[in-house]
Amino acid sequence: MEEKFAEDFIFGGATAAFQVEGATSEDGRGPCCWDEYLKRPGSRFNGDMASDFYHKYKDDLELSQKFGINGIRISISWSRIIPQGKGAVNQLGINFYDRLIDECIQNNVEPFVTLHHFDTPLGLFEDGDWLNRETIDHFVAYAKVCFENFGDRVVKWATFNEPWSIAQNGYIIGNFPPNVQYDIPKAVQIMHNMMVAHAKVVELYKSMNLKGEIGIVHTLEGKCPISDKPEDKRAAYLDDMLANRFMLDACFKGKYDAETLQTVEEILTANDGSFKVFDGDMESLAAAAKHIDFLGMNYYSSHFLQAYDGESKIHHNGTGEKGTSIFALKGIGARVSNSAVETTDWDWPIYPQGMYEMLMRIKRDYPNYKKIYIAENGMGYKDDFEDGKIDDTPRIEYIKKHFSYILKAIADGVNVKGYYVWSLMDVLSWSNGYNKRYGLFYVDFNTQERYPKKSAYWFKKVAETKHLVS
Ligand code: BGP
User: Fold this and answer.
1) Is-catalytic flag, 376?
2) Residue of 39, 52, 94, 462 with fewest CB within 10 Å of its CB?
3) Atom of ligand 1 nearest to the CA of 162
4) What value of ipTM does the predicted structure carry?
5) pTM to 2 decimals?
């Protein structure tokens, strides 16, 4: 195993516009789908203030720099730049990201910018979001505005964050807008359309001859059979097909392998549906696969699969009450607990070797990948705040285990160039609110004060020495 991270390895912190910025009606920002969703009666929280990054970004960047952090994932809020999603550009929105990007650079915290992190402008969302093919053209137009304005300084761009989460949470689990459950055909169509949008934006970026690199951020989840039984193996294979392989094929092979296509069609038939490929789509995917510069890999967890032949049944644990999750999908399988594997309070299995296996798989199955950034990894935890001190030792242990598997993958030839912990500071958690904390920096959401957690001090030592210190 490698003993040390390379000198140019990025030790970053990740954020996303809606989860940190707040200021949702300031400076001409239009509404996004999450504003509307979290304002419905009964909602337990909203994003109006979040971590107040819109006003506190200078403090956060100064803090980052002090703690050895040399990269930050931010996303641009589409509805700050183009408030209606299409049409007029909002100069005040451009000005905000100009200031933010300049501040990152001044602090030597390199910005890694995602164009879309779940927050489609409300009008486009109501018109069908990514199921409406016109959204693709609007996204390309918005990307162009971003590249024209920030492409001189930003050298790392991601088209999307986690299309699988949008598809799965919005159309299968139902805990993201539009809160549809069990509609696997729509989930697949959304993923395909987003892959086409991604491809078109990659091609646009390359045509503009800018100096940086462009990729996509996927959440990749290991899918392990709970036993050696062929039917459990099949369940793991099917879940993997939807969550991982379908979109990795699109991005890095520029097509869906015959096996991928056939299996996805079988899943769709079991769910009474199909998906549609439009004229020119496959040409777009093929072109972009030749040009994509990196894979941003988010890895939190793996799942253990058992065969299941009943109707779909899901309960999402959005409260941190351990052991309350149910996830069983018709035509695929059931995610079950593995007594040998610890979980978080939100029932996410802690399985760091799954990250190693996924990294090795990328190298094996997609040999044209150029480099990988771990774009998110981290642990949701109910931190205790005592006299300004936060002892989050379990989070340190979690990150440390993942770091050691990254070093092992690097030693085994995978080109991993950076790691962005989720999250830089505590943020709004999409379907869990403010009590599921991930940050290196604790945020008191009443005062918006920041406090470094024990993990921040530990992360600083690793970033400075490049060694996996204890
Ligand atoms: C990823 C998202 C992040 C973040 C993280 C933690 O899927 O890209 O935005 O939210 O998951 O998820 P959660 O807050 O649901 O625990």
Assistant:
1) yes
2) 39
3) 8
4) 0.98
5) 0.97
